[in-house]
Please model this.
Amino acid sequence: MLGEGILKGLAETARNFAGSFVSKERLTTVEYPEQRIPTAENARVFPFLVYDGTDWEAGLRCVACQICEKECPPKCIYIEKSKDKKPDYVGKMQIYPVRFDIDVSVCMSCQICVEVCPFEAIKMDTDFELSTTDRFGGLLHDRKQLARSNEYYHTIHPTEAAEVDGRLAEEKVKAEVKAKAAAEAAAAKAAAAAAAPPKPAEAAPPARPAETATAPKPAGGGE
Amino acid sequence: MSAPTADISIQLARQEGWNRPPVIEPDGEGELLELAMGPHHPSTHGVFRMDVALDGERVVRLKPVFGYLHRNHEKIAESTSYLASMPYTDRLDYFCSLTNNWAYALAVEKLVGQEVPERAEYLRVILAEFTRIQNHASSIGFLLQEMGASGTPLMYAFREREKILDLFESLTGSRMMCNYMRFGGCRVDASPAWLDAARKVVAELPEFVDEFESFLRTNEILTARTQGMGILRPELAVNAGITGPMLRASGVNYDIRKVDRYGIYDRFKFRVPLGDHWDIYDRYMVRMLEMRESIGILEQALKDIPGGPVMDPKAKIRGFRPKPGEAYGRIEAPKGELGFYLISDGSPNPYRYRVRPPSLINLTVLEDMCLGHNVADVVLIFGSVDIVLGEVDR
Amino acid sequence: MLQQADQIFILLRNWIVGFLPAGWQTAAGVVLGVIGIVVVFPSLFAIAVLMERKGLGRMQNRLGPNRVGPFGVLQPIADAIKSLTKEDIVPLNADAVVHFLAPVYLVVVAFMGFAVLPVGRNMVLVDMDASLLFYFAMGASTEVSIFMAGWSSRNKYSLLGAMRAVAQMISYEVPLLMSSIVIVMMTGSLSLVKIVEAQNQYTWGLPHWYIFTPWGLAGFVMYAISATAETNRSPFDLPEGESELVAGYFTEYSGFKFALFFLGEYLGMLSISGLGTTLFLGGWSAPLAALNWVPSWIWFFSKVMLSIVVLIWVRGTLPRLRQDQLMNFAWKFVIPMTLLNLFVAALWRFMGDGWLRWVVCSSILISVYVVAGRTGMQREHFGPRSYRYAE
Model:
């Protein structure tokens, strides 16, 4: 208690001063924007919409089910459904969002929209340098700004994207198997009906097998 | 209001003769200098105001004024679903988002009677103890910063905190607003790589804690400024509902991890440090010793963590409608007892959602601790309460 | 040749003055000397400010400023431009005349102190017989300007800060003087030039600097503590305590007046370091006899900058002392130690040459320090504690 604590403190500071020239641990500054810290793979900043293939409008996975809009805590997603339909990745006709706006200034990056989406259509991006000079609309990102390709998703979250692709491929295979089985059943039924006397109201609509085949996987409990 | 408490601290000073400047009663002539410290102030831990009345340099009256950060958290929760309130709980005590998440998840699980798989419980304990370590390290760093050490020890504490935050980011996706616990487990599983990284961080922690502790123990200026200051008597602490390290530094043995044994805390061996002198120095030393105990718990948990699912398969994420009822879930957050009180009326949104904020309740004794001290000491005493305005004002 | 390098500024001055008629020569010589001081010391101030920011940054595991110029070298110029172009706000209720005069007075008085410091061999602006006395008179006047600043701002925070600052500076004037009196006693003169010359002797190649004697070392330590307190530096910077009173007595100042306060504070630091090197570290004399070929003013400035580095180092390490602890420390510990130091120095002179006086003087000082320190700490119940645990 005679001042040696002070001297020890001085020695510690001197050690840090000298060390800051030689070791990386004693100088932790990263001079942004020339140097950047690599983002962690799991980092989540703001959402984006995934599209398959090259045409973002045709390949957009989102089917405007509006689940993410309902579950979003600060209600920053605005969706408008379309009147017509376009085919999705297994070929079934789905509606698509005519307007899908996310107000990035309100979004709190909680990732609940990603968790509840049944179609793997919305994922989290890692780009945080989104500042803009447009005060009034610059941070309201519309469908075109939000759409990014599946390849981009692979570059930012490789393991997650590989997992999602695997799942979607599985679903596609299952859907095809089911469609084939249903088509065979319908063909068998039609053959049986042709053999038997024709009954009125026979028409089993051919669209029915395709509909049951592409039951989208319900979200259930987490992944 | 001020007369009885002033008497207590004057008597205390006379009895025990602690390191406190001699107390002079305001002599009736001469005005009191009324000062408002804050809300724009470099050392009030956020937007917080203290209206102090000074007699010379001595504090005669102190009134805390807060509410500058009120964000209607409880009202918002009444109009959003249970799951959607989870990211808002991150932002209560924004230093320790994972313990907030856990307290809320505990309350909801009590409400519906939900079970949690074992691996999820282990992960919860691991993350909570990491949170405790980084919170206590920052708190001690802030003390030294306020005493004018120009932030040098604060930088050391933050260097360690960065390692822990990097772990959080690679697991939950975000450094501070983690949003990780769910009703029935955790959101994603931790990979073996993450567990190895966590073990590496834990292996490096004891050396840092030793370095930090030597700062506290041997620095004469620090001991001269904090020992004998801001005494909080155990009876007053218990009567005022103080919890957390403040209570344990006043010598009362009450740690919710030992009392309630929520989660799987009864499987871990750890001790609860207690203070005997009830002053600022004790509070910081209790936090320091708790950091060591947390390291012990982490080592045990990381060794024993089993495999399995991290989410109860029967848990519902969407369409969550608990039956009408009420539940109160509480945990030992780094700041004290954090509790959530929920009343459900069968709809997807809670009927009443109430947060018991430890920082706010610990602030009620601020005046009693500060009477008779100098203005410079008020800042230190206030820092030793360790509040976060997000929690005080919700 | 080396002689010329050592005396280069004197020769330069004589050469310029030679162009003027005889009646004007002394006045012109003095004016040139003043210009020299006014140019050199503010540039040292700029260097000191930059060193402080970069040094503190490195101690805190970060880079200091490094955007303006390579390694941030032009940062002081950027700061100067900023402070000149900021709006000069004077509070409505403030006493405008005093508010204006306070920083001006501070800078003027700080500059006066440099007039008597011997910067090199034959290089002192004014050679007075009682130059030490003049220096202390100027140094004490800086307190007036601080109180002027705090009072005129009509702001409770500033007033608190100013009162604390004045109380602190007055209480540390006494140890400052008392630790210098030992030097005066041993040299037998109040003139700074003679004090340096007395130290400019060498035995076995080692100099006779006063810091190398027991009483000189003790005196230097107490001088350093008092100097840190006089210039309101950490750990004694409660008056400008950033975390408590925002900026203390210069809360209400902005723009160029704030820059002048800053300049005044650093000039005070430089001049007190200058005095410290003159009294204890041998002024412009070289550390070894063999190094006498280096010009003397280089030695002086390097010692001053070394003291500044130590001041910055201490600032980056230690937390602040509270006001009453500061004053307790001054009156109850430092002043008695300085009195003891006087006694020990007298004993030194009385015992005559030889190794015995080294042993006796050192042992007296060390034992008293240890005993006083121990009892002081014990009385206050300070010290490490042990904690109990519950299971």
Summary: The first helix of chain A runs from residue 4 to 22. The helical segments of chain A are 4-22, 56-59, 67-71, 112-116, 143-146, 150-156, 158-195, 207-213. Strands of chain A lie at 47-51, 77-87, 93-103, 122-124, 140-141, 147-149.
